[in-house]
TrEMBL record, chains A, B:
Keywords: FAD, Flavoprotein, Oxidoreductase. Its cofactor is FAD. The keyword Lipoprotein does not apply. It comes from the Bacteria. SUPFAM superfamilies: FAD-binding/transporter-associated domain-like, FAD-linked oxidases, C-terminal domain. Transmembrane segments: none annotated. The keyword Isomerase does not apply. InterPro entries: FAD-bd_oxidored_4_C (IPR004113), FAD-bd_PCMH (IPR016166), FAD-bd_PCMH-like_sf (IPR036318), FAD-bd_PCMH_sub2 (IPR016169), FAD-linked_Oxase-like_C (IPR016164), FAD-linked_OxidoTrans_Type4 (IPR051914), Oxid_FAD_bind_N (IPR006094), Vanillyl_alc_oxidase_C-sub2 (IPR016171). It holds the Pfam family FAD_binding_4. PANTHER family: GLYCOLATE OXIDASE SUBUNIT GLCD (PTHR42934). This is FAD-binding oxidoreductase. Residues 34-213 form the FAD-binding PCMH-type domain.
Amino acid sequence: MSVISELVAALSPEKVLTDPDVTDSYARDRTFLEPGRPLAVVPAETRQDVVATLRWATEHRVPVVPRGAGSGLAGGATSVEGCVVLTLHRMTAIRELSPADEVAVVEPGVITADLDRAARAHGLMYAPDPSSHEISTIGGNLATNAGGLRCVKYGVTRDSALGLEVVLADGRVLETGRRTVKGVTGYDLTGLFIGSEGTLGVITSATLRLRRAPAVYPATIAAEFTSLRDAAAAVAAIIAAGCQPSLLEMLDRTTLKAIDDWRNIGLEAGTQAMLIAQSDAADGPVVAERMARLCAENGSPFVAVSSSEQEAEELVGVRRLAYQAKERLGKCLVEDVCVPRSALPYMIERIEAIAARHGVLIATVAHAGDGNLHPVFVFDRGLAEPPPQVWAAADEVFREALGMGGTLTGEHGVGLLKRRWLALEAGPVTEEVHHGIKRVFDPLGILNPGKAI
Amino acid sequence: MSVISELVAALSPEKVLTDPDVTDSYARDRTFLEPGRPLAVVPAETRQDVVATLRWATEHRVPVVPRGAGSGLAGGATSVEGCVVLTLHRMTAIRELSPADEVAVVEPGVITADLDRAARAHGLMYAPDPSSHEISTIGGNLATNAGGLRCVKYGVTRDSALGLEVVLADGRVLETGRRTVKGVTGYDLTGLFIGSEGTLGVITSATLRLRRAPAVYPATIAAEFTSLRDAAAAVAAIIAAGCQPSLLEMLDRTTLKAIDDWRNIGLEAGTQAMLIAQSDAADGPVVAERMARLCAENGSPFVAVSSSEQEAEELVGVRRLAYQAKERLGKCLVEDVCVPRSALPYMIERIEAIAARHGVLIATVAHAGDGNLHPVFVFDRGLAEPPPQVWAAADEVFREALGMGGTLTGEHGVGLLKRRWLALEAGPVTEEVHHGIKRVFDPLGILNPGKAI
Ligand SMILES: Cc1cc2nc3c(=O)[nH]c(=O)nc-3n(C[C@H](O)[C@H](O)[C@H](O)COP(=O)(O)OP(=O)(O)OC[C@H]3O[C@@H](n4cnc5c(N)ncnc54)[C@H](O)[C@@H]3O)c2cc1C
Ligand SMILES: Cc1cc2nc3c(=O)[nH]c(=O)nc-3n(C[C@H](O)[C@H](O)[C@H](O)COP(=O)(O)OP(=O)(O)OC[C@H]3O[C@@H](n4cnc5c(N)ncnc54)[C@H](O)[C@@H]3O)c2cc1C
């Protein structure tokens, strides 16, 4: 029996896709990285499918690339030569949703926004909201420890995960964590899997924490600034005043220009940056006024404050246009450095200088409250991948961020894309430990080889 | 040269304490567990002391028991025969406190409350506040993932830790995490060390997250209930209404009786439970009134609401008396189960039934908002350790909690005390994984052997 026919025997013919047109469509995420050719794609429908696939893979030493929606920006789900892509997107059951315990138990293929909607039917919400929430899966969010717009107030995916069910490389099933908010029995294995980018095990179920949904729409402001430093000072003032914004985003002029060219938002000539902030507190409108005042005090010549849900949506809508506006300009390398909040203005200035020096278009948005910047490097649509000057500029951006005490990736992960910079951040002891841990869970190295560590 | 004289040579004579009177005083934590005899006690003053001690210990295969203040309730710092107790309590520097980044970098021996006070001088706070905060160290808090009264709103120690410096068993120095709020480069090693009870490495520095301190004193209520179910229903109502209490504690009648006998709080004959709740929000007094109303609606015949800081202190002061009041009755085994919040009333009822059946005095306080209960088993002061009926009752309490989807320990840790129940919660795959991870960090098994896993 061929290797593949053994897999078919362990699963069923419909669950082993080998038509190259089909397998190709599961080979990439949202990066331009050239994937290896998958042997097959397995769309798992049950935990048992995952167990059978991994047992088979262990027996035959076949690499397995776990996959959610393939919306990743780091190449974590990029297929490797001769692998099986194990996609979880069909496992979409919300097994339980308990308003009393504020907990949901879900399969990994549930779309992030679907869980949030299900929770809202009970007055609850699922807080982590990556901008990709309408397409990304919970499994992918867990495996990358996804952030989002609300995480300035509610934390990242890690902060909403209580427990996991994980299938290990050899098919053993591990349960981590618990259903309670607190618990310290044993090592924090839940945390270890979160952000491990499919290299330690395949998540087949998650117990997630829900939170009370705010009763009202978030009061929203948008403030224009004629200098980046002013905008950054306003961010610092908003945090220092204890406003606890539920969203605090910054857009640079290049981004605003791209949006303006597309949708005409009336961008002023002198505007260098825009801050968008929300408060979902009970006294949100009061907090919004206070944030608006702090923006004005820090030099904003113009601040809009929402007075209705529709106005709030319009103001925050500008932020939502950012990514598509840039994609109109060319292909995009979306980066993801994070720096201590106090370094935010310097980091943005460095990015501008680097862009100028290399003659590269870099448009930056930032989750300003967290110091997490997304410099987007725009390059010629005709190219298959970023040209050398883009990589040279990106390299400098990474080094600057690390030099400020920051990190290579705030929320997207290392994947395949950023492995060559990893050693700059993780010293040799860290690397030894990473590989030691990897061997505990995956001694044959079949799980997502070449990624993350 | 003898083994100890080699240690003296690597450190200095004042840093190697061998006088049995001295070493005995570092052999126990707050449990009654009989310690093994330490070979020596090393009060480290620098990271280099820790490195030298661990290199020496690795060379000579000497077990090392890391120790903070010894306030632990699980026997984590109980010394083992022939070990070196490596105490970090002299490393008390707050190396940095950055209001701009809301971050502190501290040595492990800093007393929890001292860090909080240092932060308050800048309008910030260190949120985790175990009841032991005036004696416990940050290192001990990290190693146990300590909880506290405020964690219903601000989370446990894990939620305030950004990065660590850890010395591994062989003396290598590992830096985990970062200074930024977000970051996903590599595995979550910070989380792995937190709660690992000194079995994976010795924490020599921590980068911690601070938060804005509330501007006002927390508005406080205390509500009496004639039934536990009513009190539990009030807890559920307070959470469901989105009140976000910054403290939500429940005391059972046995606890209240012990406090009343000591300090006369005017306990009514029919009172079965008391809820104490605080809100530190800007509109705290409004929230407190709402919580008071919810208590009344759920059957509380009497609710006190603070109208001044002093009154607030008096109301919450009752909770602070709980532990000492019980110690007046005899020796105490302080337990720490955690159940899903909806199971809280059932768990308390089970505890009462178990107490009656075994003829054991059990007084329970609960961090009610988190479902974390501390049933305190009181036994005869003449006994060196808990008598069999106390262990029999504790055994039933643990099993009940696990049966409800709960955990053996919400915040105190497994230590030595709860190892015999560990297998009930952690299945065989978890145990294999625990030991695999332990081997990565400590292949010779010299770090706190016999603890936690
Ligand atoms: C327009 C756009 C906006 C975005 N905005 C954000 C944002 O705001 N914040 C943010 O954090 N990210 C953002 N992203 C990136 C991406 O959406 C996230 O990384 C997301 O978490 C990936 O989920 P996915 O289901 O698509 O996972 P995939 O891309 O399929 O996989 C991501 C990684 O997870 C692993 N994986 C997937 N499922 C499992 C599983 N069940 N078990 C084990 N490993 C698994 C894969 O092997 C891979 O390493 C954005 C992407 C796009 C295209
Ligand atoms: C009256 C009282 C009230 C309490 N209330 C609470 C509470 O509300 N919440 C709560 O969670 N706990 C509480 N505790 C328990 C205890 O205070 C906590 O577990 C605390 O975190 C222990 O800190 P410590 O410095 O005393 O550590 P120790 O008791 O000395 O050690 C605890 C564990 O940490 C390890 N350790 C210590 N320092 C280090 C280090 N630097 N590196 C590596 N490992 C280390 C030890 O080996 C041991 O396993 C209470 C205890 C008492 C006596």
